[in-house]
């Protein structure tokens, strides 16, 4: 529901995964689907520098995350705050 509200708001999104220590497959798939839907709504998803754990999870999952350059956090809505 949170992801849908963020998409409907229409603002660019900043996702901080720099300190992520663990992520399960379901959560990773949710982030992937969110990014796919954001692209359909022309919403840019900006990612922080990925933690090693997040990079490993993405590599092992086979999902392809399209990472855009990291902007200033102040310029975007953070999923943590929504």
UniProtKB/TrEMBL annotation:
Domain of life (superkingdom): Bacteria
Domain STAS: 1-63
Alphabetical list of Pfam families matching this protein: STAS_2 (PF13466)
InterPro entries reported for this sequence: MlaB-like_STAS, STAS_dom, STAS_dom_sf
Protein name per Swiss-Prot or TrEMBL: Anti-anti-sigma regulatory factor (Antagonist of anti-sigma factor)
Species this chain originates from: Methylophaga nitratireducenticrescens
